[in-house]
Write a structure and sequence with these properties.
- The protein is an alpha+beta fold.
- It folds into two domains: 176 residues, DNA methylase specificity domains (Adenine-n6-DNA-methyltransferase TaqI, Chain A, domain 2), CATH 3.90.220; 129 residues, DNA methylase specificity domains (Adenine-n6-DNA-methyltransferase TaqI, Chain A, domain 2, Alpha-Beta Complex).
- The chain is 38% helix and 24% strand.
- It is built from eleven helices and 17 strands.
- The chain has a six-stranded mixed β-sheet with strand order 11-16-14-15-12-13.
- Helix 4 packs antiparallel against helix 9 and helix 4 packs antiparallel against helix 10.
- The longest helix is centred in the middle third of the chain and has 47 residues.
- The two termini are 26 Å apart.
Length: 379
Amino acid sequence: MEFIEKLLDGVEVEWKSLRDVVNTVTAPAKLKRESYREIGKTPIIDQGEKFITGYTDEDVKSLPCGEYIIFGDHSEHIKYVDFSFIQGADGLKILKAISDHPKYVYYAFLNFYQKERNYKRHWARASETQIPIPCPDNPKKSLEIQAEIVRILDAFTAMTAELTAELTAELNLRRQQYNYYRDQLLSFEEGEVEWKTLGEVAQLRRGRVMSKGYLVENAGKYPVYSSQTANNGLIGSIKTYDFEGEFVNWTTDGANAGTVFYRTGKFSITNVSGIIKVSDASQLNCKYLYYWLSIEAKKHVYSGMGNPKLMSNQVAKIPVPIPPLAEQNRIVAILDKFDALTNSITEGLPREIELRQKQYEYYRDLLLRFPKPDAEEVA
């Protein structure tokens, strides 16, 4: 705050609505998907994290070269761009700063949007135009102050991006290393161990149909898992549960068919996933089975008719190597430690990457934390 006060040097801050500092621009062209190319003279902007989803060489009119803020009606991503482009998606909004520094407006918009999203994931789109933007009210000093804040945030953004890229590269290498050692630990010579089919050592069940409406009407504390891989498969929580204990959960349909998860506690699953319960824990470690199936399950996915599937009858036939329980426990102990360092969201590199991003957002918020007016003043 001392830095901000020194930067302002007595200049007051006026809070304006986003709609008062930008104009909404209409992209002059919209292309069909078949027009997208991997390279070309004009980038095509679409909704999503990357925004640039292709290029075109077609002779189409594009927006003039300039500085724009873009975001989508159905996207959580906001982007600052400084080149010409054509629209590639319905619902894409393009904003151009009127008199304030375009990138400063972008940072202020992004800062408020991400904080608001953390408090309330789905907030009224109409409120976007009412987002408060702090603007120094001295015309001579305003752009100078905004430019200095942009300079600092640009440097911080670049540093964070570089560190994140390094950590991500290291994470990818560790995952390759993890997969290598996992495969080595779970490779057995012929005659070295006993082999049985999964159906001989475990019981298999499917989940049940649960609509979005059902999840809302029966909201509670017990997790519900589906076929998606994002958020560890979690799609909601309800007040009852179908399973309790230690299980392997697998995805039966779609692009993620054959993906397996280790589940414990009380939970439910939907009809597009299945559950595996070890019959005799004194003979087979459930976590060991999970690690084995993380290698083996996808090999048994059937991709006919364009919809990948791994149904119960196929899963039951999957061969499982069964070394002595002590050896299973040893393998699990090694892979648990390796997995925590490689993939855990509470330990290791994934956590470090998350903390770097939070650190950046914290300092960005500090640089844009000016005295705030009453809500009525910005509406």
